[in-house]
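Sample intake sheet
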Amino acid sequence: VQLVESGGGLVQPGGSLRLSCAASGITYYSYYMSWVRQAPGAGLEWVSSFYSDGGNTYYADSVKGRLTVSGDDAKNTLYLQMNSLKSDDTAVYFCTYGSSLFFASWGQGTQVTVSS
């Protein structure tokens, strides 16, 4: 599975961005696609997951109510709508594919910087 993220950039606090992840090579019907981020000097942090079979979504407490994950089967694309952004959201955001416990494939990442 190959994943390509896009949509990152510089945004002011309180602003919005939408990240996209174009996927190719998926052959299973049931799988998870997730967003994982890494802030400067920090470890990896799971952000959100989308389950293909039913569209269930899951969020870290730190982003609940501000970030929304969704999927478009026709376009094989995962989205992350990011609203009310804070400086703590500054990170490289990675799209992943796999199970609920294992991220088998990763994209190259897209930088999100929240700063005035």
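Comment: The mean pLDDT is 95. The first strand starts at residue 2 and ends at 6.
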